[in-house]
């Protein structure tokens, strides 16, 4: 038990019975006799099969083989006895007796590698150069991936080039024959010279150096606490698991020592524990320890279900895959997140979850769960499409099911008779409707992220933006009130938060999460116009087309910045609060993504805003007054992220990146004023760099970002801002 009272998953474990799985078989064949070793319970047994069709050999040869087999069996037994060390709960032995080892004398699982056996799961040690939150992690190999126009990779690309032009470094941008931005259908490939990392992560072992016993669980009270934590948070935001049935199954299996548990159910349980652990920011000495614990649950689930997911189909398996996809978005496994998501969708199609006619054949409760699982696939599909800049796998025309209903209770363990109190269904319906608008925006404004179209002219972009604005307004003014939900239309302050009551915690979480999603989508809608201005930034000041764009597009930029300010205010106010109010946001990685994206919008707005006195025909600086408080909200964004999840390496990288971008842009905007005085949060935060020199923020290096056949510099040289094992550049997200 650590100082906070949290129990590690590798301490005080329950050993699950393995009678529900196929035993591992190790065979040693000899002439005339077939020997194999079977794993049974916690021991092993040797079984001899006689093959009468094979002639016998001299007795001394058989005795030699017998000796070798006995040595093998003895080695397996010793290996399994080591594996049992670290488990608790008086596990059943092969003969049905109980272990007499006292709980206090059982040491934790050693961090080293276990011998190969049926109990050990294969470790998923994959890490991508670009993770689900948008961090590029350099490896010794070259990593490739497609990140289309809606991704933050594309947005940061626009900002970095505009900033290079504004800082007088445009002549250093190396291109072939065309200096324009690459089109959306080109590959993003990150390369760097070979670099040997030294050391390991502090206090942790490399993921490839650890093994986990897939048949163990934490102590019962700790497991139950994490289950409740999941259903009070993520389970409410994506309500596709029937809480009462799941908890009832858990208690039934616990009474029988999990002897009849399906592998997929155990995998689902472990992923619920993993998600609950990632959401519990408080109560751990460090985020590294919390992340390491959640990774143990993920590795167990992966060991239980990896083969199962390729051979079997079930509703339970789709639920498992959806939670895995959610979990992987907050890790450096974005490739696997996309792959798992595709597997969830294909399995859902195989089960007919998309078909109204098929769902009619099931009882009402099961039909409702099938429907919700299908909509869970759709929501994750839209999220990954937006963040990775890839085409949606499920076209909108495939969505024919009725929306989830509040008539059937899915969340909660006790009956709730008033359907108006079943807010999870209301929230789910609101989210589905909002993400339908997201699909239309990605389809029209971003060409479904396929990269098959040339850049649209400004007039067409404005027309598409107005159409999307109408759809968002209808959702906010018509759909939400009918569901007793709302979104924030003005920045949130601490006084607003103090007015909320604890009894309305779940509903208020729905309102705040919907507010973040709505305003992030509002930014996505107006971002193409902002990117057009970024493209023109640094060009001829008397360019007629650029002047016209500023005059026509200024209201769109204002809408974009206002939504960014509201997002930052929500995250900042909640993160800096205390008690139950500190728990009103969703998963930390989503809050991180929304805040970072909002900060980028303000930075882009500062870049394209006019400097000095306006010439004849240009937009007067007074029309850009909405940017007057931009420095304040950039500072709030940095402060919010500093306190979002202290010690989290992903968050730290983004804080560094956003801080350096903000300092660079404010230095250009404020003239001789020291930008660090405008952003006090930067001075109060220890960056990865040991230097405080912000004069040269954009040194180019031999490392570069190759996109298609063009080469452009990486956004900012972050080689000074490193951990012991990483050289991280942040360019995209979840």
From TrEMBL:
This entry's Gene Ontology molecular function terms read: DNA-binding transcription factor activity, RNA polymerase II-specific; RNA polymerase II cis-regulatory region sequence-specific DNA binding; zinc ion binding
Q: Where is this region: Disordered?
A: 77-118
Matches recorded under InterPro entries: Fungal_SecMet_Regulators, XnlR_reg_dom
Q: Which SMART domains match?
A: Fungal_trans (SM00906)
Q: Per the database record, which ranges form the Xylanolytic transcriptional activator regulatory domain?
A: 337-410
Q: Does the keyword DNA-binding apply?
A: yes
Q: Which CDD domains match?
A: fungal_TF_MHR (cd12148)
Q: Compositionally biased, Polar residues: which spans?
A: 77-87
Annotated Gene Ontology cellular components are:
nucleus
GO annotation, biological process: DNA-templated transcription; positive regulation of transcription from RNA polymerase II promoter by galactose
Keyword annotations for this protein, in alphabetical order, are: DNA-binding, Nucleus, Transcription, Transcription regulation
The name of this protein is Xylanolytic transcriptional activator regulatory domain-containing protein
What is the originating organism of this protein? Exophiala oligosperma
Q: What is the lineage of its organism?
A: Eukaryota, Fungi, Dikarya, Ascomycota, Pezizomycotina
